[in-house]
Design goal:
single chain, binds iron/sulfur cluster, FAD/NAD(P)-binding domain
């Protein structure tokens, strides 16, 4: 726990919105940056709970109290190690995640929760700026894996498999990589440059991306992929909404 009295002294403060007049001229991400002092003050609000419900709320099991403590001490490099241990793409989740960790944060019972998502964003942006996000240097395993679909799950699978030395090729039917990250998220939420930055790291790690390559009835078949690869990951998502048979849904 960085500062035992932090949650008593410091109110929750997220980043401010950039002025609308400016945003209308560039359509870039909506938030102003926070300086390190502000981010550390927000991290100081973490109570390092005995049972950190934030971690249970996080589908990735991010080590939230640990990185909050390190950010409070402005040790962003160490915080990045903690964050990247469980999260392949904090720069995406730090911008896009609905933050169930914050809904689960114990501080939220009596006050406003810790700004966990924004702290995550700051950690990974510091890590990129410091050159800490580098291509994988894993020893080649000799195994080849095909990943079908290049949305968030396909990219996470590809990054994880590549990180342990497997040769990974990603097959995407659209003409660009990213799936929902590219075609579903507006620029003001996450600029495409953020996606491209990560794809560059993955390419440098040896991941091969194929675009305009549908798998199935109209393109390469699953059987053909299975012939050429040791394993195939299907991360194809859905282009139709989930059907919920509830009136008014
Ligand atoms: S639940 Fe909230 S206050 Fe408790 S450890 Fe997690 S982030 Fe910190």
């Amino acid at each position: 726990m960085g500062k035992p009295t932090g949650f008593l002294e410091t109110p929750r403060r997220g980043p401010a919105y950039r002025p609308v007049a400016v945003r209308l001229r560039d359509w870039r991400e909506v938030y102003e940056a926070q300086d390190d002092e502000q981010v550390a003050a927000q991290a100081s609000r973490c109570m390092d709970c005995g049972i950190p419900f934030c971690m249970q709320g996080c589908p990735l099991g991010n080590r939230i109290p640990a990185f909050n403590d390190l950010v409070y001490r402005t040790r962003f490099e160490h915080a990045a190690r903690q964050l990247l241990a469980t999260n392949n793409f904090p720069e995406f989740t730090g911008r896009l995640c609905p933050a169930p960790c914050e809904s689960a944060c114990v501080l939220g019972i009596a006050d406003e929760p810790v700004t966990i998502e924004r702290i995550e964003y700051e950690i990974i942006e510091h890590a990129f700026a410091a050159g800490l996000v580098r291509p994988s240097e894993a020893v080649a395993s000799g195994f080849r894996v095909a990943v079908v679909g290049s949305g968030p799950s396909g990219l996470a699978a590809a990054a994880q498999l590549s990180s342990v030395g497997h040769h990974v090729e990603v097959f995407e039917r659209a003409d660009a990589i990213g799936g929902l990250l590219r075609y579903g998220i507006p620029e003001f939420k996450m600029e495409k440059a953020v996606l491209e930055r990560r794809l560059e790291v993955m390419r440098a790690s040896g991941v091969v991306f194929h675009t305009s390559r549908p798998i199935g009835a109209t393109g390469t078949t699953l059987g053909e992929l299975q012939e050429h690869f040791d394993a195939v990951v299907l991360a194809i998502g859905s282009t139709v909404p989930r059907l919920i048979d509830v009136p008014g849904a």
